[in-house]
Amino acid sequence: METSLSGLRAMHASFEIADASSVAFARRGANDAAQKGALNETDLGRVALIVTEAATNILKHAQHGELLVRVLPSNTSGTLADGVEIIAIDKGSGMQDVQLAFRDGSSTAGSPGTGLGAIRRLSEELSVYSQPNLGTVLRVVVRSRGAHERAGRAAAGTDIGGVCVPYPGESVCGDAWGIEADQDGLTITLADGLGHGPDAHVAAAGAVEVARRRAGRSPAALMELAHAALRPTRGAAVAIARLDLARSQLVFTGTGNIAASIFNTGKPALIGGGASHNASTSSESARNTWQLTSRNGIVGHTMRDSQEFEVPWTRDALLILHSDGIGTRWDLAAYPGLHLQPAVMIAAVLYRDFSRRRDDATVVVVKADQGVHFRNDDPHIAHPA
After folding, report:
1. What is the pLDDT of residues 150-203, one digit of tens each?
2. Where are the alpha helices (DSSP H) in the chain?
3. Which domains does the chain have, with CATH numbers?
């Protein structure tokens, strides 16, 4: 999970990997992010090596892929930097044996076979998800060596992560998402400003800022406040989820085309609508996936009264939110073992396979299980059996 549980999340810069020149371009972009991430010269060198190895592996094994890079926040407002996150994604041949691939000297491409082992040694956190013949997602975090966690987890037992990528060619993202922690729980907001570019970003970021300033209020109340705040903007689709840790309940409201799915919980109940968690049929009781419905409208322009859904936040609960830059025909059952991965890895895999590539694209994942920090001496490697 991210070091900080509060503030607007930084977008990912996307670098297409298609040839040797694109590797150099991605390396320069990652270096810029690393400098913003408060890393020293030694750390910058580690970032350069990791990007080179990851991108080279993409070219060797998949011929084409993508690197996502962003600055990680450290303080509670999300304004200070604490390293960089690098995500390498491809749809290549995948790995037949992930554990073996991390051993020095192991290679299926005729190379020395030191790439993944080197990445493991150079990083503070590392996760891999790979499916034979379907591709690989590799996530690496680099922080200043010797630095300690400067902000504790505000919500033990909660893992939150996301991928946020702008419309191709744009320097800012028309989507925005954020987390705000308070003494009673967490508020997670995802907003998609109309269109793309700077004006869309202003609208989306404005919705996230409302939730940051008024954390602790109900999702419906926050939606009304966002509606008023976004009137001067072009408007946005907005989804707000409130995780009440004391009651182990999640409350959701949405306006516009933000998709929301909940897994491993009971049937969602419409608050004030007379619905009951115990009113489901036997077939409904056997379900473990539910869609949380958003109302039609544009926050800031035309919006109906908000409706809230409540679900129990169980031990294995999983919430996935995404903007309309991500297709909706995904099925977690097609990804064995993915639910065991950190939240950000789930988001990255869905982005890889379902991004429409013609819009801003954001996936946010909230897991009930405690997020684990994967150190360089103990990488988290999930691989389908």
Report:
1. 433 444 578 999 999 999 999 999 999 999 988 889 999 999 999 999 999 999
2. 20-36, 41-61, 98-101, 115-122, 198-213, 219-229, 282-285, 343-354
3. 7-145 (3.30.565.10), 159-367 (3.60.40.10)
